[in-house]
From TrEMBL:
Coiled-coil portions: 801-832
Residue stretches making up the Histidine kinase domain: 842-1054
Known EC number: 2.7.13.3
TM spans (from-to): 772-790
Protein name from the UniProt record: histidine kinase
Alphabetized UniProt keyword annotations: Coiled coil, Membrane, Phosphoprotein, Transmembrane, Transmembrane helix
Length: 1054
């Protein structure tokens, strides 16, 4: 018995494994449980919102799925009483953006709107309660099919309510004996109909249907019943049995989708029209019953199926776009480097292996493989090159040997031992086959000439030619270990392409020329280089441009490029397959090197084992690498089979959905984001801003970046920081106070500037010491402090300046006094020198001349006495007496003047009578006056007195009268007094010609320097004594020319 149980168990296990292998060959399957994201393994309901998120009702929370990350709404981040949800329901107000999650206790309701779910306890009060019979104990609201709750309580139910999504107040109420239909909250129609099982009912596109025991559908309309027949893929299934109990309806009540499970096949009802129900097979060989699948959702755009299990979590299926063909079971037999077309839908490899797909019959699309013994016999481990010539013959090489087989590969036609290692073979447009020989360089064979031996090319010998490609009709491109060379076929001229010397080039792609049956669209200029270690290059106009790599540098090991008919480039690598838009590559190459902004990095889609490969490692050492079959399929050699696909049939799954600022986490405290502004606390630390975007393709295709700027500033190129696709979270260790803008940018797909951008404002409050008022107060305090400092400093500096000025003033005063003393001394010295000069001149003129006269006259006395001329002697003696008196008076005046100048004697003042003083001088000058025939007129009163020095005043009057008499002839010399403005004027006027203006200005002036300068114009001492003695006596001096010269001696009456 135990043995039988064991055998049955092993058989079931084998069958299960076999079934798994079957569906996994067709579908990429992702299985999620509580071990890899789900909070719990019971998925009750599935729905998709308008943003593209998948929502799951589980017994441990409401779960949002974006394709790679699960986020659970439960008691930790909401006000739920219990995290158990049993279904999702639509909105009855017509809002298609809202979905409601209903808890087991019917009190916990969460409203799904946008990327978040919030508590909404009013759903029943404002919507469900408006539905008739909804408040009884005998009603139930439909939550999709299958539904075990209905089956368990079916006998107790009287009212089964089916809500119609996306419409206002639209629903069906199914009773035991009738069906009612409401729209816009009003009954539209009703129909009598007996119901025994409520679980037979579902809706599609707003219409009510039931699944009959015969396997057909009934549609309930206002005008009656309509019988619907199944059609489509389900009828093509020979195992389908109408009315079988294994046929089960799956109905998604929120997404308005209906499915039929028939054994291990799962059909989607695409449309119901004209009495027919169109079905499409979307899943095969998967046991839904064994996995307890209870809910389903189908993404009709991307053909992705989501299945929720009661115990096994979530399954996600998508049909593989790629198919891997293997030869036998040995991995060593499935390492392929190259291939060539064999028939319509098959290829043959250098190993002699034929692989392909059967294109007709019961085994259509199944893998076909066979062996060609003739080719296999020539294979010696070198599987790097094989081709089919224009005559259909197959060429292969192995080591030193070159083989030619017939078109079926069954017979060897020719064989050559080249004598050196053959690295590669290539057929150009003319059918000529080129050979790259290890040390001997380039050879060729003209296949139109039977039995022709390989001929050495006339150009220079290039060693290690690994790949050969044809450019235009007259050019070959040769890939060697030493770089890329271009060769002119006619002349043999060979040119090394600069910059390629150190590149490990694996292949070339020349747009516009189909290579090895791989289609290429027209391309005008440039060639693409695939390298090992450096990625993709573009060579044009003698310029080599390197394309940017992906983040993980998978494309660094690029094997070759295949262009499809839609303008996409497919690039196999050691880490998977890349899809680029050729126009993006060419735009990047065109913009590189220009003095503009950095060119935009080309977008790519990445494919790996999840898409249908047995391995991510493709091979690219052989030539040709890829081939395109007549039926449009492309075959790529890999380390584990040949990967086949039709590029034009692949719908690129682009990350073009919107993205959202989901939640913010600060010091492990999570808050949901519901607005475009986030207000943080002061000094926030460990800030995590989570971004979410629905994308169900390979996560490596998601390109998100962010920039943090001060509010009002636009991000520049240097501000953008890439986010990891596996964890799109913006992290800040801390943020200082201020207003920031976080801008996030997502690449949506191929093309230029294909971005989505969103911004959110982040405000970090300022500390009290960062506020405007505090800063204003600080500024005011600072300005006051500066003012006080400046004022204090100014006072201090002023005080210092004053002290300095006092010191400087004292020193300056001392210097000025010294300078003044020096100047006075200099003036005194100059004056004394001047006086001495004048004394010498005066003595020479006024004294020496009279003395000479006295000597002369005395010499005449003795001779006159001898001749007794006594009268004449007496006259001479009288003249001598007069002259002696004049000399005496002159000397006396000089002596008095010299005393005042040199001795500085004190001048004694007294009352002086002018009349006798003048009379004395008249007596003295009478002879001289008579000699000049002048008349002296004294009109001075006898009572007039002045306060002065008698002797020095006499010197002044003496010199004035002497000067008047000298320059007056036969004229009057008049002395008189006048009173002007309480001043006494003693005026001595003559009738002479007058003095010069210069001398008059000098006498009237006060400038001592001028005194010295002007006084040099005459030799006498008299006027100098007049000016200086008048100044010493305090007598004003005024000279004028008025019919002669008038000297005014001006005395103060007081």
């Amino acid at each position: 018995m135990l043995i039988r149980i064991f055998l049955i168990t092993m058989l079931c296990l084998r069958l299960t494994i076999s079934d798994a292998q079957k569906y996994e060959e067709k579908y990429a399957v992702s299985h999620y449980t509580d071990e890899n994201g789900l909070p719990q393994n019971s998925v009750k309901s599935i729905a998709a919102d308008k943003n593209g998120f998948i929502w799951l009702a589980t017994e441990n929370g409401l779960v949002r799925f974006d394709g790679h990350h699960f986020y659970t709404f439960d008691k930790t981040n909401s006000n739920l009483l219990s995290p158990r949800f049993y279904t999702l329901l639509p909105d009855l107000t017509g809002n298609t953006n809202r979905i409601y999650a209903i808890g087991d206790n019917l009190e916990d309701v969460m409203r799904i709107e946008g990327p978040n779910a919030v508590d909404d306890s009013l759903y029943y009060a404002k919507q469900i309660s408006r539905v008739p019979h909804s408040n009884t104990d005998r009603d139930r609201t439909a939550s999709g099919l299958p539904n075990s709750l209905i089956q368990m309580s079916d006998r107790l139910l009287h009212y089964y309510i089916i809500l119609v999504p996306s419409r206002i107040g639209t629903f069906y109420i199914i009773q035991r004996d009738k069906i009612e239909f409401f729209t816009n909250w009003k009954k539209s129609w009703d129909m009598p109909y007996k119901t025994s099982d409520f679980s037979d009912y579902f809706i599609s596109n707003g219409s009510l249907f039931s699944f009959t025991s015969s396997g057909n559908l009934l549609c309930f309309r206002a005008d009656g019943l309509e019988k619907i027949h199944l059609d489509g893929d389900i009828l093509n299934d020979p195992s389908y049995v109408a009315g079988s109990k294994k046929n089960t309806i799956f109905w998604n009540n929120v997404s308005d989708q209906v499915f039929i499970k028939a054994d291990k096949k799962f059909y989607y009802i695409e449309d119901i029209k004209a009495g027919n129900c169109i079905t499409r097979l979307i899943l095969d060989d998967f046991d839904l019953e064994a996995n307890i699948i209870q809910t389903a959702y189908f993404d009709t755009d991307k053909k992705r199926l989501f299945l929720g299990s009661s115990t096994h979590g979530l399954f996600v299926f998508i049909r593989k776009d790629f198919r891997t063909l293997r030869f036998g079971n040995k991995d060593s037999e499935n390492i392929f480097y190259t291939q060539t077309i064999y028939g319509k839908s098959q290829v043959v490899t250098p190993q002699g292996s034929v692989l392909g797909l059967i294109d007709s019959g019961k085994k259509n699309r199944e893998i076909y493989n066979a062996i060609l013994p003739a080719i296999q016999s020539g294979y010696e481990g070198d599987g790097s090159s094989i081709l089919t010539d224009k005559q259909g013959n197959i060429w292969s090489k192995s080591g030193y040997n070159l083989y030619q087989y017939d078109s079926k590969g069954e017979h060897l036609l020719q064989h050559w031992d080249i004598g050196d290692q053959i690295y590669t073979m290539y057929m150009d447009d003319t059918g000529r086959i080129w050979l790259g020989i290890h040390r001997n360089g380039l050879f060729y064979i003209d296949t139109s000439r039977p039995a022709q031996k390989p001929t050495h090319f006339k150009g220079p010998v290039l060693e290690d030619i690994m790949h050969i490609f044809q450019g235009n009709n007259d050019k070959l491109w040769l890939i060697t270990h030493h770089g890329l060379f271009s060769v002119q076929i006619k002349t043999g001229k060979t040119t090394l392409i600069p910059g390629t010397e150190k590149l490990i080039i694996r292949s070339l792609y020349i747009p516009g020329k189909p290579k090895n049956n791989v289609s290429g669209n027209a391309g005008k200029d440039g060639i693409f280089l695939s390298t090992m270690g450096d990625g993709i290059f573009f060579y044009t106009e003698k310029k080599l441009i390197q394309f940017p790599m992906d983040d993980n540098k998978f494309i660094s090991a690029a094997h070759y490029i295949v262009e499809d008919k839609k303008g996409f480039l497919w690039i196999p690598t050691n880490k998977g397959l890349f899809q680029f838009a050729k126009k993006d590559f060419l735009r990047f190459a065109n913009e590189s090197g220009k003095e503009t902004a950095k060119p935009e990095k080309p977008f790519f889609l990445y494919y790996n084992k999840e898409n249908g490969f047995n391995t991510n490692e493709f091979n690219g050492r052989g030539q040709p690498g890829a081939v395109r079959l007549p039926d449009g399929q492309v075959s790529l050699p890999s380390m584990n089979g040949l990967v086949w696909f039709t590029p034009e049939n692949i719908s690129p799954e682009l990350p073009d959905k919107s993205f959202f600022f989901d939640r913010i986490e600060i010091r492990d405290k999570i808050s949901r984001i519901n607005s475009d502004t986030i207000m943080l606390e002061q000094d926030p630390q460990r800030i995590n801003l989570h971004i979410t975007t629905p994308y169900y393709g390979n996560n490596y295709n998601t390109n998100l970046s962010y920039a943090l700027t001060k509010s009002g500033n636009k991000p520049v190129a240097a501000d953008w920081i890439d986010l990891k696709s596996a964890d799109p979270t913006i992290r800040f260790s801390e943020l200082s106070s201020g207003k920031y803008t976080v801008t996030v940018r997502k690449t949506n797909g191929f093309g230029q500037n294909n971005y989505s951008t969103k911004s959110i404002t982040v405000i970090v409050p300022k500390h009290w010491y960062e506020t405007f008022l505090f800063r204003l107060a600080c500024a005011a305090a600072f300005m006051a402090a500066v003012f006080l400092f400046i004022r204090s400093r100014t006072r201090y500096l002023k005080k210092q300046n004053q002290e300095l000025e006092t010191k400087i003033k004292a020193r300056t005063q001392s210097l000025e006094e010294t300078l003044q003393q020096l100047q006075i001394s200099e003036k005194e010295l100059n004056k004394q020198m001047h006086i001495r000069t004048r004394l010498v001149a005066s003595i020479s003129h006024d004294i020496r001349t009279p003395i000479k006269f006295l000597i002369y006259a005395s010499d005449k006395i003795q001779p006159m006495i001898d001749v007794q001329k006594y009268d004449q002697v007496a006259l001479i003696g009288k003249n001598i007496n007069i002259s002696a008196k004049q000399i005496n008076q002159l000397l006396e005046n000089m002596i008095q003047y010299i005393k005042t100048q040199f001795k500085g004697e004190h001048i004694k003042f007294a009352e002086v009578f002018l009349y006798p003083l003048i009379s004395e001088k008249i007596t003295l000058f009478t002879p001289a006056i008579q000699e000049h025939e002048n008349t002296f007129i004294q009109e001075t009163s006898r009572e007039v007195t002045v306060f002065s020095n008698n002797h020095l005043l006499g010197v002044v009057i003496h010199n004035i009268i002497d000067n008047a008499n000298k320059f007056t002839y036969n004229g009057d010399i008049r002395v008189f007094t006048e009173t002007h403005h309480d001043k006494l004027h003693l005026i001595i006027a003559d009738g002479g010609p007058g003095i010069s203006l210069n001398l008059m200005h000098w006498l009237n002036g006060d400038d001592d320097e001028k005194t010295l300068e002007v006084s040099q114009e005459f030799n006498g001492l008299g006027l100098l004594m007049v000016k200086e003695i008048s100044s010493m006596l305090g007598i004003g001096l005024f000279v004028e020319n008025d019919k002669g010269t008038s000297f005014h001696l001006i005395f103060n009456k007081n």
